[in-house]
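REQUEST ID: PR-0412
SUBMITTED BY: lab tech R.K.
PRIORITY: routine
TASK: structure prediction, single protein chain
INPUT:
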Amino acid sequence: MSRDAHDILARVFGYNAFHGDQQAIIGHVAAGGDALVLMPTGGGKSLCYQVPALMRPGTAIVVSPLIALMHNQVSALREAGVAAEYLNSSLDLESAKATERALRAGKLDLLYVAPERLMTPRFLDLLDHLRDTEQLALFAIDEAHCVSQWGHDFRPEYLQLSILPERYPAIPRIALTATADRQTRDEIIQRLHLGMARCFISSFDRPNICYTIVEKADPRRQLLNFIRNEIHSRFTRTAGIVYCLSRRKVEETAAWLQEHGIAALPYHAGLPTEIRAAHQGRFLREDGLVMVATIAFGMGIDKPDVRFVAHLDLPRSIEGYYQETGRAGRDGLPAQAWMAWSAGDVVQLRRMIDSGEGEAGMDYETYRRFARNRLDALVGLAETTACRRRQLLAYFGEETAAPCGNCDNCADPPQTWDATEAARKALSCVYRTGQRYGAGHLIDVLRGELTDKVREKEHERLSTFGIGSDLDEKRWRMVFRQLVAHDFVCVDHERYNALALTETARPLLRGEAGLFVRLPAGKLHRSKRQRAMRERSIPGGVPATLFERLRVWRANTAQDRNVPAYVIFHDATLRDIAIAYPATLDDLHQISGIGEHKLEAYGKEILGIVAACR
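STATUS: complete
OUTPUT:
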């Protein structure tokens, strides 16, 4: 690696060293090589193309799927003294023309552009001019998983980016994503013609995130308790994201949190554009807001100080779960990923999969098979009694040697129950009653309850009547939830939620498979787990007074400059200042995240705040 890269890293971005594969990636791309980069959120993907963009002559073209992402990236680069612009639909005609003139004149280091804008004849002519004048530095394709038809972030316009190696074969390309299993990686390589590219796959682990998954009891109350006990008890003015499956639930949950003193905003695709933009702007610029959203919110949200991501419904896949939870703790400080789920979530998602029509280039059966497999993998993560992080990483092909110690199962190992015998009794009862009844009636039969309905159907004469009297109704309901979650039985919604056997049930009925389920933790165990998480999560050694004064100064400065607060400085940088108590500009320049441009712009103000707190 040339000194230029390290000089740029320190002088422009204020960092003293590269992390992980950054150095190798930057060297490879700067030398003209193509690359596919898989790096977790918060791992420093942007530097992997921003540094070589400043090393190579000309302008780097960054393909980005969202306007918000472009705005935030460009704002951050400008704060660091980099000549960066964007071209998207938010610009008026004159502003767009001014940016095009600057591009043609070679005045830009980086230009962010949406894929649909890049493919217009007008923009391709501009690229041809840059190529012919040797002023085209590289192409960076951010959020490259958008090319995959399997994910919920699929963007058909990304498929057109295959024209780049054909039209500009000498220009290096770097495709980057934080979420891609083996199948998605292969699809990115195929569709973007990156067969000769070097692949850099970093660890998917986010060790600062604590994973907790609970069964739904009173989910909104559970969420409120989580926010109050696990988040607000440790952090002030904390940002978080709550994901819900439906638009209605988003609005109801946001309103309910507001009623209980939590500053919450709704976000979903059904809201008017101006309201979505206003809520997103507030979330990015203000401290302490909770965004309650569907998956329409998230990609392009570069906010590093999100302290928690919560799910009130089960996502559709581990990829979705990983990507959404990865929006917490981008600054490397402790963060929480909390989810409440139920067998009803699984039923609803399976219905959505079964009623779907597949995706572009996919027949229905193929789509259904892969979508169900991915959902089943997530159910397995929710059900596991082992380390959640190990199972999550194993899905992406990454093996870990030991339990993480930073998930609910590690902090408080759950009790398990061998439910094999009970499950077989339940399946037999489903079969004997004709596969036409819901869990409530089946439990009455199993427990030997002579209800009017049992008498009417003469089910007291069945061999399964009363064979489950040793278990109470609560335990039986847990058994049926697990049977649904593991797809041993399916729910027929057209017949009043009647349960029916699936092919998966055969090995269990024949004694060739078993069923072990986790038991809910008691109050004592929950308190123990909360204490353990709290002790691990409190960052030590940070003088609160100075840190809070720095945050107030940052908020005011960001408002004056009309940028998100983290564009000025990340929380991690403010914490380092609060710990170091720098006395001179040289002392301040040693702190990670303070480059020369920011030092010149803000150094004296920061030193004044530090001096006032001595």
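NOTES: The CA atoms of residues 32 and 170 lie 8 Å apart.
REVIEWED BY: pending
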